[in-house]
Write a structure and sequence with these properties.
Blueprint lengths: L4 H4 L5 H12 L3 E7 L2 E6 H18 L6 E5 L4 H12 L3 E5 L5 H10 L4 E4 L2 H11 L7 E4 L13 E3 H10 L1 H14 L5 E6 L9 E5 H14 L7 E3 L7 H14 L2 E4 L6 H8 L3 E3 L2 H17 L2 H22 L6 H21 L7 E4 L6 H9 L4 E3 L1 E3 L4 E5 L12 E2 L4 E4 L4 E5 L6 E2 L3 H7 L6 E9 L6 E6 L4 E2 L5 E2 L1 H9 L4 E7 L6 E7 L1 H10 L7 H5 L2 H19 L9 E6 L19 H7 L1 H8 L4 E9 L5 E9 L1 E2 L7 H5 L1
Parallel strand pairs: 1-11, 3-4, 3-5, 5-6, 6-7, 10-11, 12-13, 13-14, 26-27
Antiparallel strand pairs: 1-2, 8-9, 9-20, 15-16, 16-17, 18-19, 19-21, 21-22, 23-24, 25-26, 27-30, 28-29
Helix pairs in contact: 2-10, 3-4, 3-7, 3-8, 5-6, 9-10, 12-18, 13-14, 13-15
Length: about 650
């Protein structure tokens, strides 16, 4: 479609796109959900009927144009219907992270002045009721799953199905009002408000218009030729902009089917059953899948292990070239074909990616080894670069130009520029309207001409036009000798090893780099079981001498790799500790999207960081933790400070 076609065709809101989809794809499947082990489906016509009933019920409850309706729950069709129903009555949907603790939820619900909350189940209702003690503006709760809700006070609470039933019964009274509100929606009205992950402070409410979302959905769909027959699995947090653009924006623009897993725990099996054609996952997902695969291979017979490594070595040489349509000899093609029969095909199938045409990863940098591993299997995995403030898409990788060290070229209607300090700026139709109730931050981020500061440092390659991101601008620094410090580059290399779940590297302004490491309990626990090593806790296993020795070998292998990079050879890790607890979003150490909160970690573990630099061989520490029920506690530990071998930097490199 040409620019402005959406607006000229009257497709300026998602309720209008819904009407179009019913007319064009009415009998095609729009949503699918697995419940009690059975997949249930709704066509676009049935979806429209469900949304209409809920919208009429919201009118009966007194929802006004401009009201904020919070939506909290796991990925279910009803939760997605709630967003479009809210838009249909002129309200603004505000999805929240379902695993947010009460304190986080209180801030968002108070900040957005939510009058209504649509909650997935009893757990979410309980948190909202606790929030109501501090946020009296919440007038009504609608819950979807009624299990456990019978004895609650329902004077300000309704079951989702009852609200729909009331809406259907009241359609004669509210039909005209609903149509009038839908007709009044414009391209520049607010479509959704999404809160940032808050890596550096309080989350900010990002206001996105219909124009932002629809234009971004259109341009990104055109970039990779998405179509109505595509299938996606909606499993990422609904409060994250990526899920909104994939499961609402692109789904409504193209009319493809959104599949919802039965539970988070069954996501892998449900992905395998659905076999989506279009898939997105953050780097951690692809890292975890490699960990699971390698654990299984450790348990396989010697012959199977040999077969796997033999063909994977070949795939690393030619898999990416085949995917990109580059020259490969007949003999290499034949061997890859054999490998596909016995290794690559079964791995793709087990990962649920047998039918994937396009797969994306974003959110943070992915390690090149992880990225190349999946592409070597014949999976068209690409890196995209985006932000909540951009309605996701800034750059993407065209077919045939996919590399692990770039994030691609600007998609249609996106402009890029690099500031003198190396910070990346962009301008596009997807640029957010404002930060809600925060004009100062809006002005700091977006200038009068619409240019947005990303906070990332990078450069555009002259030869290819591809954007390369070095790291977060605030994290990129210099070592004491003036060489570049870019921690994410080293962290991603460390996380390629199945035993390493998380890594945080330090060294800005210092003479040497150090690191905190988290073990992957699944991978290391499997190793302990195979070797008859007993342990009673994460802390005990993380401190086991053989585990520490293994982590040391990983660090030293990464150091050897980093030493070969002229620009970043000074970022080799000299000392490290294996932390006694896993970094956790509930403890404020990670965001809800699993990004490291580097400054908070530096402050919280300042005693350990000091020990890494003062020559100590061990450090005793006490750390506050948050349990699943919200209670606080503390754990004590004595950690070893481990010296790692580093590779010398050549005289030529040092001179440069």
């Amino acid at each position: 479609m040409a620019k402005d076609t959406a607006a000229s065709a009257g497709l300026t809101s998602f309720p209008q796109l819904l009407v179009r989809n019913v007319a064009q794809f009415g009998d095609k499947t729009a949503y699918r959900e697995k419940e009690f082990g059975i997949w249930q489906s709704w066509t676009w016509a049935e979806t429209a009927a469900e949304i209409d009933a809920l919208a009429l019920g919201l009118l009966e409850l007194g929802v006004n144009p401009g009201d904020h309706i919070a939506i909290i729950g796991r990925n279910r069709p009803a939760m997605y219907w709630s967003m479009v129903a809210a838009q249909s009555v002129g309200a603004v949907p505000v999805p929240l992270y379902k695993d947010a603790v009460v304190e986080e939820m209180t801030y968002v619900l108070d900040h957005c002045s939510a009058r209504f909350v649509i909650a997935g189940d009893q757990e979410q209702v309980d948190k909202v009721i606790e929030v109501q003690e501090k946020v009296p503006g919440i007038e009504h709760i609608i819950y979807h799953d009624k299990r456990g809700m019978r004895k609650y006070d329902h004077t300000r609470m309704n079951w989702f199905d009852d609200v729909q039933a009331t809406g259907r019964a009241a359609h004669e009274r509210f039909d005209k009002e609903l149509q009038a509100r839908r007709a009044a929606l414009t391209y520049d009205d607010t479509c959704v408000m999404l809160y940032t992950s808050g890596t550096t402070g309080r989350p900010k409410g990002v206001v996105l218009s219909n124009r932002n979302v629809i234009e971004s959905a259109r341009n990104s769909s055109d970039f990779d030729s998405l179509r109505q027959s595509d299938e996606v699995l909606a499993y990422l947090p609904m409060a994250w902009v990526g899920d909104f653009i994939f499961s609402i924006g692109q789904a409504y623009w193209n009319g493809f089917c959104v599949n919802c897993p039965e539970r988070p725990e069954t996501m892998y099996e449900d992905l395998h059953e659905i076999g989506p054609t279009y898939f997105f996952a953050p780097p951690r997902y692809f890292e975890e899948r490699i960990t699971i695969l390698l654990i299984r291979m450790e348990d396989a017979s010697r012959f199977k292990r040999w077969l796997f490594h033999h063909f994977m070595d070949h795939a690393k040489k030619v898999g990416g070239r085949l995917l990109d349509g580059k020259p490969v000899s007949f003999g290499e093609r034949l061997k890859y074909w054999l490998g596909d029969l016995v290794i690559y095909g079964p791995v793709r199938n087990r990962a649920g990616m047998s039918h994937v045409r396009v797969a994306y990863t974003a959110g943070e940098a992915i390690g090149p080894e992880v990225f190349d591993f999946w592409r070597s299997l014949g999976i068209n995995l690409k890196q995209l670069y985006g932000q909540t403030e951009a309605t996701v898409f800034i750059t993407n990788q065209p077919d045939g130009e996919v590399r692990s060290d770039t994030v691609g070229v600007p998609i249609k209607d996106v402009e890029l520029k690099i500031a003198e300090n190396g910070e990346v700026f962009y301008r596009s139709p997807g640029v957010f309207v404002e930060y809600f109730k925060n004009p100062e931050s809006t002005a700091d981020t977006k200038d009068a001409e619409g240019w947005v500061a990303t906070g990332d440092a990078g450069f555009i390659e002259e030869s290819s036009g591809h954007l390369r991101i070095i790291d977060r601008a605030k994290d990129v620094g210099k070592m004491a000798d003036g060489s570049m410090f870019a921690p994410k580059y080293v962290e991603n290399k460390l996380k390629f090893f199945p035993n390493v779940l998380e890594a945080v590297v330090f060294g800005n302004g210092r003479e040497e780099c150090t690191a905190f490491l988290n073990i992957d309990l699944t991978a290391v626990g499997n190793w302990a079981e195979r070797n008859n090593i007993a342990y009673s806790s994460y802390q005990e296993l993380a401190g086991h001498p053989e585990v520490i020795a293994t982590m040391k070998s990983h660090v030293e292998e990464v150091n050897a790799s980093v030493a070969g990079d002229e620009m970043l050879s000074g970022c080799q890790v000299h000392r490290f500790v294996v932390l006694h607890k896993q970094l956790d979003a509930d403890d404020g150490e990670l965001t809800r999207t699993q990004k490291v909160r580097r400054r908070i970690i530096e402050e919280k573990y300042s005693d350990i960081l000091t020990a890494l630099y003062d020559g100590s061989t061990e450090v005793s520490t006490e750390t506050e933790v948050t349990y699943e029920d919200g209670r606080k506690g503390s754990i004590k530990a004595t950690l070893q400070v481990i010296e790692a071998a580093v590779k010398p930097v050549s005289a030529r490199m040092a001179a440069e």
